């Protein structure tokens, strides 16, 4: 029953995340225009980093409230591979489809509710290069962001606000690096949701680029993390 409950929580939070995350570019553009800094080259980067920080901070609170819910399959897989958390292969087999279903719901909802004049500014990742190049890019980017997440949250500063700010900086830097390749996504569920909206969710390219390689990258990152930061050995209880 616990695995089913966390899968349902994953579906809910992933739907919410995809709904909100698809608007980050739009929100950044509106804020830049509202405060009149269109001519300042660095302003959009600072603003989008602040937007990402705000939403990640809020979603961390929501995830904790929902019992550890996650909106990213690579994060779920990585923490399992790193030996952190209570997941099992069975729970992940329930959580991944739930996250994908939630992403579809979030993508459909934002496209339905967004004002027509802003719909061209809302969307998800898309493959802009050949399949193999995209797959490598998505795998490498996911490796880096996953290692960063593990390092920041397990070995980083104690302050949760500082942790979230570091994660926002890393996320924006990697998104900017991967924009010309795959979007990027670094989140298979998010990519699947938008692939469903664009009717290419059942293709090999989508599965290869946005599921297989990111999950491989995340698991490799967890193994490398464990190599540098091995978990403490189990405490042996002496029998009386």
Structure commentary:
By secondary structure, the protein is mainly alpha-helical. The protein has helices at 2-21, 24-35, 43-65, 73-81, 89-113, 131-155, 160-178, 188-197, 204-228. Helices cover 70% and strands 0% of the residues. It contains nine helices and no strands. The chain is globular and about 60 Å long.
* β-sheet strand percentage: under 5%
Give a short account of the largest sheet: none
Radius of gyration in whole Å, from Cα? Answer: 18 Å
What is the residue-averaged pLDDT?
Answer: 93
Number of strands: 0
Instruction: Output the structural class.
Output: mainly alpha
SSE topology string = HHHHHHHHH
Q: Distance between the terminal alpha carbons, to the nearest Å?
A: 36 Å
Tally of helical runs: 9
Q: In terms of per-residue confidence, which ranges show pLDDT below 50 for 5 or more consecutive residues?
A: none
- Helical content (DSSP H or I, runs of 4+): over 70%
Instruction: Categorize the overall geometry.
Output: globular
